[in-house]
Amino acid sequence: MIGLGIETSCDETSIALVKDGKEIISNIVYSQIKEHEKFYGVVPEIASRSHLIKINEVFEKAFANTSLTLNDIDYIAVTTRPGLIGSLMIGAQFAKVLHCITNKPIIDINHLEAHFYANFLDRKVSPTYPFLGLLLSGGNTIIYKVSGLNQLEIIGNTQDDAIGEAFDKAASILKIGYPGGPIIEKYAKKYKKISSNSYFSKILKDSKKDEITFSYSGIKTALLYLVKQNSNIDLYKICYDFQETCFELIIRMLKKAIYKTKINHIEAGGGVLANQRLRELLDNLAQELNIKIYYPTQKILCTDNGAMVATLGYYYFKNGYKTNLEFPVSSTVI
Ligand code: AMP
Ligand code: MG
């Protein structure tokens, strides 16, 4: 069974072809980073205009080095939520036009759910439930309990900024570029640890014993005042300390979620999972607790992409689900 996946929820225009939810035939991702970098963040109007300009080219590339044509696809999976409305509409309308041409069913996808299916695609396995879904991206910092298709219960969420957003804002304050995550990671790697004192030792420490919650606006503000008040900040050290402190909170909350739910199977996804240090910390935790923690081994599957959309679509399609053609798009999960 061949699925076509369309993803335009934020700043990636992506279309993929996936076979049986396990094999990537193509996964074309056009990133808009260059268009947003001078603003240090995604500008919604620029994002939707860019999707409109690029989507046909991305579509053609998805078929370019394959022997497939539109007639060979069995379903069209498209992200309809959550995301930037103008951006979602480009992908959704594109799906509706493909439906007009092919008469193939459309599957509307919550791309937050799809992130976990990137891992099943990556490992070429079918999903097993329940698992804890750890989603760390530019817009979300969530731990879900996932009990089946469309069965996601939020166990922990951020009270303010998302972790990726915090990396982006920190890099903007430090004036080191956009997106912040990979740049902060690069600077952090260069720090030769000589002191166990952290710039952020008093931050992110307090939370009630069994409360699973994230907050990243405090560390961002702390960083802002450190930079304002000190002219000789060690850039490598501040990036290192910032990264370590942000990830320490993730590991602490993930541990709590594991103890609370007694679920020993974790699937992690989202752009922040591209971070090598985070991957190492998750591997260490898996070893320490003797549990399974997975993340996409291919970095292209961490961030938003059409292949994960097509993969989740495959499981809905197999279950007989198809979308009413009057489907809406939504900035939230409805
Ligand atoms: P997404 O929202 O899933 O498209 O992912 C984009 C977010 O992931 C941005 O906020 C990036 O700063 C962040 N990100 C990307 N690569 C890394 C990295 N290596 N370390 C930390 N964050 C990252
Ligand atoms: Mg993105």
What is shown here, in short?
The two termini are 28 Å apart. This protein has helices spanning 33-36, 44-64, 85-102, 111-123, 163-174, 180-189, 217-229, 235-261, 276-289, 306-318, and strands spanning 2-7, 12-19, 23-31, 75-81, 106-110, 131-136, 141-148, 151-158, 213-214, 265-269, 292-294.
Q: Can you tell me about this structure?
A:
This protein is 43% helix and 20% strand. The protein is an alpha/beta fold. The chain has 2 domains: 138 residues, ATPase, nucleotide binding domain (Nucleotidyltransferase, domain 5, 2-Layer Sandwich); 170 residues, ATPase, nucleotide binding domain (Nucleotidyltransferase, domain 5). Strand 2 and strand 3 form a beta hairpin. Helix 2 runs parallel beside helix 3, helix 5 crosses helix 6 and helix 6 crosses helix 8. Adenosine monophosphate (AMP) binds next to helix 5 and helix 6.
Sketch the topology as an H/E string, one letter per element.
EEEHHEHEHEEEHHEHHEHEH
What is the spatial order of strands in the main beta sheet? 9-8-7-6-10-11
Report the principal-axis shape.
globular
Estimate the mean pLDDT confidence.
96
Any idea how many domains? 2
